[in-house]
Amino acid sequence: MSLLPTITTIDVQEQQPEVAVLPIGSFEQHGPYLPLITDTAIASIIVREIAAAYPVLPLPALTIACSHEHGTWPGTVSISAQTLMSMIRDIRESLAGTGITKLVLVNAHGGNYVLSNIVQEANVLDRRMSLFPQGGEWHRARTRAGLVSDGHGDMHAGEIETSILLHAEPDLVRPGYETADHDGGERRFLLTEGMRAYTETGVIGFPSYATAEKGAAVLASLTEDFAAHLKILAP
Length: 235
Known about the structure:
Elements: H1 9-15, E1 19-24, H2 38-53, E2 57-58, H3 81-97, E3 102-107, H4 114-122, E4 129-132, H5 135-145, H6 159-168, H7 190-193, H8 212-233
Parallel strand pairs: 1-2, 1-3, 3-4
Helix pairs in contact: 2-6, 2-8, 5-8, 6-8
């Protein structure tokens, strides 16, 4: 199944969606067993599930974002927060030209902090944009899926990310996750010191607990919770 939307202009014309959904990922290291596109793939998978369940316009992902804390690992590429903000603004304005004024940002990379500010600014005068999944929705998905780890300890290339890919795109997962667990601790100065200060492998989390069944349950929970975002933007 493709990570890119394959709908045609006729499909959109017939469906007449009020809300577009934009996956936002990253291009950054995810240890030796997950690809650089992990966050992008997960955001795209979530949007794929959403588009199958709700009348929305799925967009192709923004594949490079704010990954500066991973900057010294080979392959990692970042753009500035200002550039990411400009890209989303341009996309929103282009959508408005076609009559779609509501946009949900589906973010799968924790380092894209600026997205919260973008959504806040967009909604000053009207409900135009939402950010998904939010912290509570990720937590609820972990609980419903029976994940062993929590969101703090399982920060990067861990149980939840590996589980989602094992279910939805298993060809992206290489051997080695079964023995790659690493506890990164409190990580008080992550923004100052970067990931290198807390992991030698690039992993902070517990991928050994990952299963395809957990990944399916996580996606089911997130898909269900998306309904509230659709309701508040296009009641």
